[in-house]
Predict the 3D structure of the following.
Amino acid sequence: MANAPLRVLIADDERIARESMRDYLLWADMGMETPVCVENGALALDCLCHSPFDIFIMDIRMPVMDGMTLMEEIARRDLDVIIIVLSAYDQFEYAQKAIQSRKVFEYVLKPIRRVAFCEILQKAAAEAVRRKQAHRGPIPDLEGLRHEYLACLEHHCFENGLRTLQAPLEALLAQGNQVDLVRRFLVTLYTDTRMAALQGRTPSPHLPEDGLARMGACTEGAELWACFQQAVDALLPYLDPTTQAGRTKASAVVEHCLDEICKHYTEKDFSLNRLAEQMQLNPNYLSTRFKKETGVGFVRYVNGLRVRRAQELLRDMRYRTNEVADLVGFENPRYFTRIFKDLTGVVPSEYRSRLHWHQPPAASGGKESE
């Protein structure tokens, strides 16, 4: 999951020094906002008391309130911030004394060396993220929750599926700053539900309006949960076998088709004509029979399986979109993108960006392609 940018405060009485740090370092690339700058310790303390900061970079010698006094105030007020101390060479012993007597993450000798300083900032950022996660409490096993929900879906226990999700997600939202994480998770579940509806052999493959856009617009946890429930409720008639009028038990012919599709759908040359030839049947007859008994056309059924498999592969950042298309049986990446959007409501790259509620595997370094 992507963390919110870290907040940084810089306190240095030398204007050029503090503005150079602010303007010439790539803060966004390190996961940080552009720093707030002040020129003395008193202003810095006021900032720290009235607004939360993750990292505080301070010169040891400043007017109005010097670094030592400032650190005493930070300790007395129990302010949780990572402190990086800056000092000139002639203040080195003074800085060492500060470090030995106070909790200081790192000290940096002026003039600052950019590369070494960025490495220190990255270590500080990692520590800040670790502290935030520790404060938030444990994150529930979202992948396990997903499997429980899908099991309920498969057995048509829809209310049980929602009850399985509600308590863990409410606890997660109560930790604060977790709406984006929950949104990505619910988007994945909604896409799973929509795909299950398309594979449900309903007489009508035309599903209700896609709920992803409405879920994306939600800013509050309760609103997001209600939106997810409404979107899933709209799909339930397409999942419940008791509402699928005219559904009959598949014949031996169609059962054989379904078995062959499951075995070979990722092969690029797999087609209705190939299957009909293997079964020694007329392609038009097989196509009509398949759609009559399943409620879904042969091509749409195969594409549904391919897209579902593609969803699984897109969770692995080692694969580019073009590679996923190839692995699931599409020769043309553009056609894959069009079919994926038709069945899920989003293009593959957007689906990938929305679904990662856990830390993805290391990317291969290739450029994501559409």
Remarks:
- DSSP finds 17 helices and five strands in the chain.
